[in-house]
Amino acid sequence: MNTMLKMDSPAAPAEAPTLGNGIKVVARDVNVYYGEKRALFDVSLDIPERSVTALIGPSGCGKSTFLRCLNRMNDTIPIARVTGRIEIDGRDIHDPDLDVVQLRANVGMVFQKPNPFPKSIYENVAYGPRIHGFANSKADLDGVVESSLRRAGLFEEVKDRLADSGTGLSGGQQQRLCIARAIAVSPEIILMDEPCSALDPIATAKIEELMDELRQNYTIIIVTHSMQQAARVSQQTAFFHLGILVEDGPTQEIFTNPTDKRTQDYITGRFG
Amino acid sequence: MGVVYFTGLALLVLIGFFFGRARALAVGHTENLHSRPGYHGGFVVISVLLPVLALFALGVPFAQYVTENQALQAYDPAALDDAFKRSAVLRDIIALANGQFSGQPTEALRRAADTYASLHAWTSYLLLTGGLVFGLLGIAYGLRKLSARFRARNSVERFVKGLLFAAACVAVLTTIGIVASVLLETIRFFERVSPIDFLFGLHWSPQTAIRADQEGSSGSFGIVPLVTGTLLITFIAMFIAGPIGLFAAIYMAEYATPRFRAFAKPLLEILAGIPTVVLGFFAALTLAPLIRSLGETLGLNVASESALAAGIVMGMMIIPFVSSLSDDIINAVPQSLRDGSYGMGATKSETIKKVVLPAAFGGIVSALMLAMSRAVGETMIVVMAAGLAGNLTFNPFEAVTTFTVQIKTILVGDQEFDSAKTLSAFALGFVLFFFTLTLNVIALQVVKRYREQYD
Ligand SMILES: Nc1ncnc2c1ncn2[C@@H]1O[C@H](COP(=O)(O)OP(=O)(O)OP(=O)(O)O)[C@@H](O)[C@H]1O
Ligand SMILES: [Mg+2]
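Structure tokens for the assembled complex are given below, as produced in the milestone run.
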């Protein structure tokens, strides 16, 4: 387990007693600008540890933008500018002393469209461990690759063709490969941006099952357009609208008893 | 005649199109058309174009042939069989018929010119009338075919396909034609010089004597020095252009700010646009002396024309080639792959090295191969900077010579056309062609193998 963010963060809660209910991510007054255009308005959100948090809201409301703030992927967009404070385990991720490479190793990401590298299945999963120097020997690496593929529920399907290209898999398999690739570096947080939008119901069910399992060990934040999916997999839900975080809370409550009119309209399908 | 013919054709085409479309529109009021009216118009156009163009393509040469033969017959039947005399006489006849003959024409020539002129006018009228008739018939045929159920769209599609096929054929046939003509001369060369001596001979000096009794009448035609010279210069050029071009491309595609790009890309394109002659005298007048004096201070013996100077400048010539091709290829790598890598915590250079470049590998290899065949085929720079001496050497400080330089040297100036020396230029050209062909095939193969592995 990669604990680099924990070790040097004084505010980090002690490991054992907070299991399953500590706050992993704290966002305060986060604003994002793309050039002149403001995409997020003072978003403040707490994300609990070892659970699934769903971000929902109509298209263009800033869900992906918020998600990308959490591993500073917005840094790769030249015109994007982020203000506000984001803490992971009590540590400010914009702290100049913090290495963005380590941050991203600790906060994995799965994208909307499966994007396996044009390399073999094995090399896809081994990519992260290799660049971070996690595995000391070939046997180590083999072990990491196998266990990551197993946890992503893909190993049985591909164990005989690890040397084949990752791009030759089906869409659902590719997405699970991307998940395996992300968990191979043992992140603590996994961000998923609409991971099922390109998948059929069976592949979707597999990935949802997987998320349910992964939340035993990981903090998962998922963007989804499917109310049903949010209701099925998540414990917390946050509803965004036009760049504003309208409402957040336990999924049960948001879906059965939303306090804001906009949330109500959205989840009952009146707009979006 | 041609102008009138094609103006008429254009008119017929326009008329055909509008009639066809109008007819289809009229029919369309009462019944459902299979194809849109434009396609019906198009079909009529095709039924006009095809016969009228065919008549022109076949009729004009035929008319020419008949006219010339009749004119020659009238002049002197003996001239018909002698190809040499035939063309000389014809020139006079045509000149006289056009009123451009200088001097006093003979009676026979005048008769021939009259025949020529009248036949020429006659066949022209015939062709024009024929074209008109064919065109009108075409319109009639096209209009007759039209009905609501008629599949005009399919016919037009077929015609378009045929047209594209014809274009492809022309391209392929041109290549075959060029290769065949070079091959033919090459075979003639090999009747004089044995292919073994040519391919494996270590000495190149194609000076053959003009008269058979002169000294040294049988030059030597061993191309090994040319091969080494060409390879040496190409290698130097690739050594320079490969890394610089590739790194520049990576910088431009991955690191440069839009502002730097906007400023540097056009500059690179200017470098690509410098005529090679200019680069050539830069090599010969600036770089070669520089290298020479540099070598002297180091105690090296550098020739005033050196492979190094030519290779460096040639490298400069192909840098923009390598960099702009590679730039496009790197840009074509999907952003999602980069995001995937950054999302794993990879740094920029790790991402480039492990994801972007492998994904672009096939394209980059073929770009390098293309650049290399440019270098192999480049003439002007080497002519000016590398010298003419066929030295068999791998020393970049000596003068060497290349295929292209020798071809140019051999064919410039007065030469007996079927001497071994002249013919050797074709053999050189053929070997050069074979060389670049091999490069291209290898490039394709690499790209293909890479695709199989990763797609
Ligand atoms: N790279 C970018 N450059 C400029 N504007 C952007 C960029 N990315 C996003 N935006 C803008 O920011 C706003 C929020 O976009 P974002 O992608 O976060 O929406 P989203 O909620 O993820 O929508 P969707 O559900 O359609 O994915 C949008 O108005 C969008 O136009
Ligand atoms: Mg999005």
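Chain B touches chain A at residues 257-258, 334, 336-347, 350, 354-355, 358-359, 453-455 (CB under 8 Å). Residues 205-450 of chain B form a domain with the MetI-like fold fold (CATH 1.10.3720.10). Further analysis is deferred to the final report.
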